[in-house]
Write a structure and sequence with these properties.
The protein has 60 residues and is α+β, with helices and mostly antiparallel strands. It is 33% helix and 22% strand. It has a 3-stranded antiparallel beta sheet, covered by helices on one side. The protein is elongated and about 40 Å long.
Length: 60
């Protein structure tokens, strides 16, 4: 899995500065989505952030 975490979805919403807590929340949300895709039998996919931006890819 590859995730680029330099976008707004991973930063503090008010200051637009790096925020490890917000970054962790977004990564967790992404991992839950990928887990669901794997459970449905998918073997690869695109990683999208909460804002709808492509931020990576995954495969198993």
């Amino acid at each position: 899995m590859e995730i680029r975490t330099d976008g707004a979805a991973f930063k503090d919403m008010e200051t637009d500065e790096e925020d490890s807590f917000q970054e962790g929340l977004e990564i967790n949300r992404i991992l839950e989505n990928v887990s669901g895709e794997i459970a449905c039998g998918h073997k690869s996919g695109i990683v999208m952030d909460i804002n709808g931006n492509k931020v990576g890819k995954w495969s198993r």
